[in-house]
Structures are given as structure tokens and as C-alpha cells.
Design a protein that fits this description.
The N and C termini lie far apart (about 50 Å). Helix 2 runs parallel beside helix 10, helix 3 crosses helix 4 and helix 7 packs parallel to helix 9. The protein has two domains: about 270 residues, Carbamate kinase; about 100 residues, Archaeosine Trna-guanine Transglycosylase, Chain: A, domain 4 (Roll). It has 14 helices and 19 strands. The strands form five sheets. Strands 6-7-5-2-8-12-14-11 form an eight-stranded mixed β-sheet, sandwiched between helices. By secondary structure, the chain is α/β, with parallel strands linked by helices.
């Protein structure tokens, strides 16, 4: 059956790209409570195959494990179910999800499951990067998902839209393709506002655009348009273009293989952040914060200085050495987040050395990891 034209969207040429991340949501892979379906996945797989045949590299970030597990047990979607049950559903469905993608490709499909800690811990972040790059070098097709089965804080890192943006930066991708069930980005939700205007090209994601975004559109997926804009903003900060398109439309997906976009293009920032600074800005942070005085805040923001114990007033939470934490200025105006970075000391240690000179650290703690609480190379301003 022929589909009507994508409302208001016209074809625009895609820029040249060598490596891309394709994010596919649950709404494209699973009907409500009915398990995984190849209906839309087939067209997307054909786009991937055409890209691979042209000498490009693709990584798929795919949702759908929980939906697949739910179908195995014949359970309808519901909100507020226990974490353990959602994790069990993910464990049941993950094998089916990988099997769905493997059926479309002659090359091996590699399952890569990432966790909150993999993206927060610098060493594990770099290990994940090395693994993905080696899989690409071996000619495999990586399919990435959150390791839902062992997530402890909550089921998702945030959502797979944001995970896809982090993966795109992780592997130095040129493009992030987000397949959804809507034609592109509109000035309002086109399902409830028929007069909404299509937006073909976004130069910079201002607060005005974020205000246009709505919530989740289906009972299967977890991400709405707001999370897609968040992902596009993160990708843009890393110099990566994002392309939002309707993955349920065969003509739209076929156009991608021809080098054309029927959807919305989000352009990258002009000045690309260094890879480490990007990681510092976007990876998940640990609960808690390091509280500093005005002098320390000024030294970091105006002079690019490291954070020394003398400018720290206290530490909140129970984070450990090597964790990603936020730096908060607390004064008569209240609390303001000014930076985030990798702490060289635990929260317990920082509370002991706060307001002290760096030379006193070893005498107080009995050991010394250096004179900085956060080194400037491990710090990014907010």
C-alpha cells in the first residue's frame, strides 16, 4: 500500500559520511505487547546493507529487549512495574532482539551491552571505544543496547536516544541517524496539532526548540521528542550531525540509501569539544557534589585553574575516587552548578581535607593522590 507523502518534508541532500550510528526505537520493532516484528526493521536493514556495501561503517543502537521479553510472557505494557521484573523481561528479550537483526545480514552481528558505569568510568569508557572500533575493523555489525539486566539505579541510562549520541561520540562517528515513528521535527506535536509546521533544518538547538518538544508517542518506547533533541544537542557538541526521520516509511528509508533525507537535519556546533571534554560534559554523574567557595569558583571559571582543597567547603553524597561529580558554588544567592569533573578523592576524604592546603593532604589522610581535588584536565565548565 502506498503511503502518503511525508507532510511538509521535502528531500534534502545528505552530507558525505563515513561512519554513522543508527538508533532504532521500540516503536519501530514491536507492536504493543505483540513482540518483535521485521516489518520496519527490514527497510532499515536494507539501508544499513547499502551503506556497508558503499564502504561505510554503521553501528546500530537498538531498543526492544523489554518489549520482546514482555511478549514472551504474554504481558501487556504497564507503568510502574518493579525493576526486577523489567530486568527479567530485558534478559528474556535480548537474545530475540539480536536474532532479529542477525537475520537480515550475512556478516556477524555483535551484541554490545553498556551500563551507566561503562560511560562514567574513564577506563571502561575507553575500553568500550576500543571494542567497538575493533568490531568494525573485523567487519562485524555492532548492535548496542543498555545492559538493562544489571542496571541498578534505574532501567535506562536516560534513554537510547541519548545513548546513541554518546556512542556516536565514542566512535568518532560523522552522523547520527534517529529512526522514529514521526516524519521529523515539528513546531508542535503533529498528532495533536494538525497545524504544526515541519522544521527541515536546525542550525542550533535553542531553548525555543526544546519548548516545542513533547512526550513519548507510544506505549512501547520510552523516549519522546524531547530526548531526541537532547541527543541531537549532545551529538552537535561533538561535531556530529543528527538526522531525524520516519523509520516506518519505506520511501523515507529508501531515500537515505540514495543520499537524501526526508526529515529534519540538526547541524553540529562550529567548535568541536575535545573528546575528553565531551566525555566529561555528557557521561552520567554520581549522586552528590563538591561544594566550593567564590574564590575557587572564580579561579576555575576565569583562569582555568584546577580545584584545590583550600577552596572546597564540603562534599555531599557518598561518591568515590574516580567518580564523575558536579561542582557547586554555594553563597548567599543559593546553589549554582558551575562545573563537573572526575574527583581525585572520595567524598569522605574531601570532607576531611576541605579548607586545608594541598601539602597537608598526606598528613591528614595518610596518603596522597595529588594536590588537586579535581585537575583542570578532568574538569569541564557548565
Amino acid at each position: 500500500m502506498n503511503q502518503p507523502a511525508a507532510r511538509g518534508f521535502t528531500e534534502q541532500p545528505l552530507p558525505a559520511w563515513r561512519r554513522a550510528v543508527l538508533k532504532v526505537g521500540s516503536s519501530l520493532l514491536a507492536a504493543d505487547g505483540e513482540g518483535l516484528s521485521p516489518r520496519h526493521a527490514l527497510n532499515l536493514a536494507q539501508f544499513v546493507s547499502a551503506s556497508l556495501a558503499a564502504g561505510r561503517e554503521v553501528i546500530i543502537v537498538s531498543s526492544g529487549a523489554v518489549a520482546a521479553g514482555r511478549a514472551i510472557l504474554h504481558r501487556k505494557p504497564q507503568s510502574g512495574i518493579a525493576m526486577a521484573e523489567r530486568q527479567a523481561l530485558a534478559a528474556l528479550g535480548q537474545a530475540q532482539l539480536i536474532g532479529l537483526w542477525q537475520r537480515f545480514f550475512e556478516r556477524p552481528v555483535a551484541q554490545v551491552l553498556l551500563t551507566h558505569d561503562d560511560l562514567r568510568n574513564r577506563r571502561r569508557y575507553l575500553n568500550a571505544r576500543a571494542t567497538l572500533q575493533e568490531l568494525l575493523a573485523l567487519g562485524a555489525l555492532p548492535v548496542v543496547n543498555e545492559n538493562d539486566t544489571v542496571s541498578v539505579d534505574e532501567l535506562k541510562l536516560g534513554d537510547n536516544d541519548n545513548l546513541a549520541a554518546v556512542v556516536a561520540a565514542l566512535v568518532d562517528a560523522d552522523a547520527l541517524f534517529i529512526a522514529t515513528d514521526i516524519d521529523g521535527f515539528y513546531s508542535a506535536n503533529p498528532r495533536s496539532h494538525p497545524e504544526a509546521s515541519p522544521i527541515l533544518d536546525v542550525e542550533a538547538l535553542t531553548p525555543e526548540f526544546h519548548a516545542m518538544a513533547g512526550g513519548a508517542g507510544s506505549g512501547v518506547g520510552t523516549g519522546g521528542m524531547h530526548t531526541k533533541l537532547e541527543a541531537a544537542a549532545k551529538a552537535a557538541a561533538a561535531g556530529i550531525e543528527t538526522f531525524l526521520f520516519n523509520g516506518t516509511r519505506a520511501d523515507t528509508v529508501a531515500a537515505l540509501a540514495r543520499g537524501s533525507l526526508l526529515g529534519t537535519r540538526f547541524r553540529p556546533a562550529q567548535n568541536r569539544l575535545a573528546a575528553r571534554k565531551y566525555w566529561l560534559r555528557n557521561v552520567p554523574k554520581e549522586a552528590g557534589a563538591i561544594v566550593v567557595d567564590a574564590g575557587a569558583a572564580n579561579a576555575m571559571t576565569s583562569r582555568g585553574a584546577s580545584l584545590l582543597p583550600g577552596g572546597v567547603t564540603t562534599a555531599e553524597g557518598d561518591f568515590r575516587r574516580g567518580d564523575m561529580v558536579e561542582v557547586v558554588l554555594r553563597d548567599e544567592h543559593g546553589d549554582r552548578r558551575i562545573a563537573r569533573g572526575v574527583s581525585q578523592y572520595s567524598a569522605v576524604d574531601i570532607r576531611r581535607i576541605a579548607r586545608r592546603h594541598s601539602r597537608d593532604i598526606e598528613g591528614i589522610l595518610g596518603y596522597n593522590y595529588g594536590g588537586n581535588v579535581i585537575h583542570r584536565d578532568d574538569l569541564v565548565l557548565l
